[in-house]
Write a structure and sequence with these properties.
By secondary structure, this protein is an alpha/beta fold. 40% of the residues lie in helices and 26% in strands. It is globular and about 40 Å long.
Length: 145
């Protein structure tokens, strides 16, 4: 079962529906056969100011199933939210397909078998390059989300 829960915008029902529809669409485009997944999307006020990030994604499933994820998004401009959601959904695909694993052993991540250290520039990380490219394509092809 696909379960998407959105927190942090209870007063803005339109935004909640828009985010939910976008998440389902992105999931279907990225992983059309994935049927068992639980995604929690949390909108965080001033995340960009406080944490210097528009969003982040966590693989919460310690098992081999990779079915539980949390996405945190900066609660700001709605179009930026959708772009960031698309980007973070690509990371969910990367986690689910085991292309990307976050590491806590002095390296920041393992991407398709290769370890990358913390010094690797964010814009040069291959998983971020892929997420940026796919997210931009999704948003340009589906502007009404």
């Amino acid at each position: 079962m696909i379960k998407i829960a959105i927190y942090g915008c209870s007063k803005d029902k339109r935004l909640k529906r828009r985010l939910s529809a976008a998440a389902v669409l992105f999931l279907r485009l990225l992983m059309p056969r994935k049927r068992n997944i639980d995604i929690r999307i949390k909108l965080v006020k001033d995340m960009l100011t406080k944490e210097h990030a528009h969003g982040e994604c966590y693989d919460l499933d310690a098992s081999e199933n990779h079915n539980y994820y949390t996405i945190r998004l900066d609660y700001g401009d709605h179009d930026v939210l959708i772009n960031t959601l698309a980007h973070e959904m690509v990371h969910i695909k990367q986690f689910a397909r085991r292309e990307l694993r976050m590491l806590y052993d002095g390296y920041c991540a393992k991407w398709k078998g290769e370890k990358y250290d913390e010094e690797c520039d964010y814009d040069l990380r291959p998983w971020e390059i892929e997420a940026n490219a796919i997210a931009a394509e999704f948003v340009s092809k589906h502007p009404l989300i």
